[in-house]
Amino acid sequence: MIGYKFVKGYRGNDILRESFNQLAYDTFGISFEKWYKLGFWTDKYEPYSYIDGDKVIANVSVNQIDLVIDGEHRKAIQIGTVMTHPDHRGKGLSAELMKKVMEDYQGADIAYLFANKTVLEYYPRFGFSPVGEHQPLLKLEAVRGKELPLKKLDGCLQEDIDFIYDLAQRRKPVSTKFSAAGNAELLMFYCTYAFPDDIYYCPEKEAVILMKVEGETMHLFDVICSKEIDIEELAAGLAPAEVKEVLFHFTVESTSDRLISVPFKGEEVMFVITAEGLVLPEIFKHPITSQA
């Protein structure tokens, strides 16, 4: 673009990274600086940006991620942090950056993103199609299973951060139907930024659990474990007495009559482009802790 310079791979440049973080904060209310300083911003996450001088004025980020779909590992890219400074909107900057990203990652099995409902007409221009997600919902019985003791972890405490990251690098996918793999660094963004007060360790199951209780509903955001685990049994053992249902923010495989799927009603819609022959499951929930 005339007058602007295209840059990528600049996370080590303090001036550009600060400008990127400022634009992200002004646009979305988030900053990646803590994530960077903790060492979790790696080559897997790469902003494609236009700069004006030393200011980032437009960006489309790529997060390289593996998805497990019907038991097979698939190479994927997740597009996020799409933003343009208000003074530079309407110039086609995001569209040019999207084109660069799609050209660079033509070999990916799947490209996808999450778009808010104000831009649902934008991404089909690049070949993306909307996909409906479904959340697993577990109805709890009056008689519960064995209560599982928990240890509270702190997403701001370095000792706990190291413990979670070590386990995350060795984790088993929570589902072979649809889940993410090799996403420990992205998970740590959620542990240190989004859910630092909602992390627990279950010694009996050797699992780190991200969860939160709201009224009669327990939200289960993620279960990090290095071995296979019965998620339904775990959820029943974690739920306090007042909880009547567990809402999972990831795909769960179960044949239980108590586990149903409900249409996901979030603020964002998933858009995808898949390689020829790749078909997504009819019912799945993209894990929230792998959403870039």
UniProtKB/TrEMBL annotation:
Keywords: Acyltransferase, Transferase. Residues 7-155 form the N-acetyltransferase domain. The keyword Cell membrane does not apply. CDD domains: NAT_SF. GO terms for molecular function: acyltransferase activity, transferring groups other than amino-acyl groups. Pfam families: Acetyltransf_9. InterPro entries: Acyl_CoA_acyltransferase, GNAT_dom, YpeA/RimI_acetyltransf. This is GNAT family N-acetyltransferase. It comes from Bacillus salacetis.
